[in-house]
Amino acid sequence: MLLTSIITVFMAFIGRGYGEWALVWEDNFDGQSLDKTKWTYETGAEPKWGNHQLQYYTEDRRENVRVENGHLVIEARPEPMDKSQFTSGRLHTNNGWTRGRFVVSARLPKGKHLWPAVWIMPTQNTYGNWPASGDIDIFQFRGQKSDTVEAKAQYGGPYPNHTVSVSPLTKFTDLSVGFHTFTFEWDETEMRWLVDGQQYFMVDVHRDLWSHKGVDPYTQIGQPFDKPFYLILNVAVGGDYFPVDVYGPQVTPEEAKQWPKPTMEVDFVRVYQQK
């Protein structure tokens, strides 16, 4: 009985397609600094990001991004830079992949209006401006609700003529305590999202994905999810993800000094593709 339970848990953890995935890229953050052959910083502040975030993303600044004790650490800080009152870090992979299994082991931050995310974006806007060429949130998370995540896929046409497929807000354990595995599986027929092996969302992509608003940018079923996407890691602060009527006024630098945990630690990032 015990052996059967262990096998069941293991099969759930690895997701659908056991035995079909081959590791093609990974970073275990075992060095002393960020491997820039694998990662590139994204820098700057609003209006660059488009949703009223409060942070300035810095480059090569250990206070915001560092590798230590076998982990990548991204830290949001209440401190002025340029016209922003907060700093943080945002990275993307130098590689892109068409379909695959993306696995991130991370311990998430905790605190008012902290907004960590792991997501993928197209390497080129083949089908038009955002999000006609696709936008996938492997997860996003609100720091004052540290047991709840959300997954999202955006496609169908350029904003505002697009489609949003979004998961229910799904509760797990406190994701700021201990490392948890966030998995996104993407093949020709569907996309699946899992936390610690538990699938909580799925989107069928073997169909016409046009929103039926504006001009159809696609010529085949499954588009735009037939092109390479790169992976992004970041911790944002505030913005439109925190409606005032639900989450209250935007966090102030003084309030942010009381954040219980302003860091996202990443143990590893791994990308697999089907054999």
Automatic annotation (TrEMBL):
<dbReference type="GO" id="GO:0005975">
    <property type="term" value="P:carbohydrate metabolic process"/>
</dbReference>
<dbReference type="Pfam" id="PF00722">
    <property type="entry name" value="Glyco_hydro_16"/>
</dbReference>
<keyword id="KW-0732">Signal</keyword>
<comment type="similarity">
    <text>Belongs to the glycosyl hydrolase 16 family.</text>
</comment>
<dbReference type="InterPro" id="IPR013320">
    <property type="entry name" value="ConA-like_dom_sf"/>
</dbReference>
<dbReference type="InterPro" id="IPR000757">
    <property type="entry name" value="Beta-glucanase-like"/>
</dbReference>
<feature type="domain" description="GH16">
    <location>
        <begin position="18"/>
        <end position="275"/>
    </location>
</feature>
<dbReference type="GO" id="GO:0004553">
    <property type="term" value="F:hydrolase activity, hydrolyzing O-glycosyl compounds"/>
</dbReference>
<feature type="signal peptide">
    <location>
        <begin position="1"/>
        <end position="19"/>
    </location>
</feature>
<dbReference type="InterPro" id="IPR050546">
    <property type="entry name" value="Glycosyl_Hydrlase_16"/>
</dbReference>
<protein>
    <recommendedName>
        <fullName>GH16 domain-containing protein</fullName>
    </recommendedName>
</protein>
